[in-house]
Amino acid sequence: MLYKINLLLGLLVGMSSLTFFAFIQLYRQKIQMKKIQFATETMVSEIVHEIRNPLTALQTFHEYLPEKIDDKQFLSNYSNLIGRELERMEDFLDHLLDFARPQPINFMSIDFHNLLESPLLLLEHDFKRNNIEIIQDVQENFSVNIYVDSNQMQQILMNLFFNAIDGMTNGGRLTITTSVEMVKSWWQKDLFFVIAIADTGCGIKDKHLLQIFNPFFTQKAKGTGLGLSITKGLIEGNGGTIDVQSTENVGTIFTMKFPVIKKT
After folding, report:
1. Number of domains in the chain
2. Are residues 154 and 232 in the same domain?
3. Model confidence over 26-54: pLDDT tens digits?
4. Euclidean distance between the first and final Cα of the chain, in Å?
5. Are 118 and 249 members of one domain?
6. Which residue has the higher pLDDT, 230 or 55?
7. Could you give the dihedral angle defined by the CA atoms of residues 63, 66, 67 and 71, in that order, rounded to the nearest 10 degrees?
8. CB neighbour burial string for 220-257, b if at least 16 within 10 angstroms, e if fewer
9. Do 167 and 247 share a structural domain?
């Protein structure tokens, strides 16, 4: 009799445990669905917002055009406005495609210092126009290679440089620093190539630091909110990490780390 009671109690406890774990699993699934729903709602609202702005300009132009068709100032103003809005919408759609459809990664062994020259030359005019001084504190006396996609690395640098330019509206200084860092664990030592990009711009508020890599988050009047999200995705896809430190009205530092290729 005692054996049967113990068996019954064991079955009840087992069923209770299964019910509890099933409840936890369902709860987690519900939380995940809410996160997906929130992300979807955010994405759709941002897309609608970005497309609605140029449509509003077009609609206004269409309404007033019959009575102002001979007004050259009106035509000139709205022609420039519509052009800017359409250009902004095209830029947003390009970023959206990059975000939704990542390109395949073509890994290769590269020396970062050789790669750095190209994006700096491409943006040389932008730096001069915005009165930004470039300082390169790169350790060219050592030669290490990282295994990444060179085109995507250039896109990463361009995105971070553009972000720095946007933050230094009154001019400033952009400093690019490279170094090698050793990380020890109990079973091995790993080398990482470290790239720090520091600006003396407006900085980021503390409450926004955890959000800047989220899709569609932006504090810029003309930003898409996808640039840093795409950048983070590219870095992680190439085996790296990115961190940010910022002080409002002082500046921002983005730090990337990539594993160094070990010579055999």
Report:
1. 2
2. yes
3. 556 665 566 555 555 555 655 665 666 66
4. 70
5. yes
6. 230
7. 100
8. eeebbbbbbbbbbbbbeebebebeeebeeeebbebebb
9. yes
Does residue 53 form part of some domain? yes
Same domain, 71 and 138: no
**What pTM was estimated for this model as a whole?**
0.65
In this structure, are 240 and 133 located in the same domain?
Answer: yes
78, two tokens: 């709205």
Question: Are residues 144 and 229 located together in one domain of the fold?
Answer: yes
Average confidence score pLDDT of the chain? 78
Is 118 inside any structural domain? yes
Q: Which domain holds residue 83?
A: 11-100
User: Do 34 and 114 belong together in one domain?
Assistant: no
- Considering the domain boundaries, does residue 23 fall inside one? yes
Give the list of residues 6+ apart from residue 262 with CB closer than 8 angstroms, or none.
191
Predicted pLDDT of residue 178: 93
Instruction: Give the residue from 177, 199, 200 showing the smallest Cα distance to 256.
Output: 177
237 with 103: CB under 8 angstroms?
no
